[in-house]
Amino acid sequence: MPELPELVVLSHQARQELKGKVVAGASALQPKCLNIPPDELCHTLFGKRVGDVTYKGKWLFMPMEPSYTLLINLGMGADMLYFATPGDAATNYQFRMDFEDGSGFTIRFWWFGHVHLMSTEALTEHAMTASLGPSVDSSLTVEAFRAALSGARGRIKSFLLNQSKISGVGNAYAHEILFGAGLHPDRPIPSLSQAEIDLLYASLRRVLDSAILAGGAYYEKDFYGRQGGYTADNWMVGYNEGRPCPKCGTPIEKIKTGSTSSYVCPTCQPL
Ligand SMILES: [Zn+2]
Question: What is the rounded (10 degree) CA torsion for 56, 159, 228, 210?
Answer without folding.
Answer: 100
